[in-house]
Amino acid sequence: MSATPPVGLPRRRVLVAALLAVPAMTGCSFGSGADEAPDPLIALADAARADVDLVRAAITADGGLAEKLQPLVDARAAHAAALDAEVVRLDPDRADAAAPTTPAPPPSLGRDPLARVREACEASGAAAAAAAVDLPAERIGLVASVAACCSTYAVVLV
User: 40: closest CA among 30, 31, 48, 32?
Assistant: First the structure.
């Protein structure tokens, strides 16, 4: 009798073990990699903060726009807060992430600050509408309301 094990059995076990180790090393996922993509609400919250900065700059450039644009500042600030809260709800580790401390440079308004604000609202509304298409049901309401608000402001800021 031979004391050595059969030749084919150890190789198969090594191969099976190697194949089983691959998912363990990659996070046990053979999926589409959706977990690797950043949360789309982060970009929407960043856009909301950028819109707040833009609208404030427009108010500074033309004080006569304050009454017309202050509700938009309030709405976009509320959007940023709500979107941030939803991101943190699904990823509590993001709550510890520090917000950028360096102020953004003043946005460029061009000759017509109101037109620039309108364009930003259109872009933000379109981005939120596009993001809503791929979101789970529990997040669609928030993002759809952001899209509706931005799109409405883009129309009424004439």
Answer: 48
Instruction: Tell me if the pTM is above 0.70.
Output: yes
Token pair for 115 = 């037109």
- Cα 142 to Cα 31, 79, 119, 136: the distances in Å are 27, 9, 22, 11
Distance CA 9, CA 90 (A): 45
The pLDDT value given to residue 158: 79
pLDDT tens digits for range 64-77? 999 999 999 999 99
Q: What Rg, from alpha-carbon coordinates, does the chain have? A: 25
Please calculate the CA angle 33-39-40 and round it to the nearest 5 degrees.
110
Q: Maximum Cα–Cα distance for the chain, whole Å?
A: 100
Q: 103 falls in which pLDDT band (50, 70, 90)? A: low
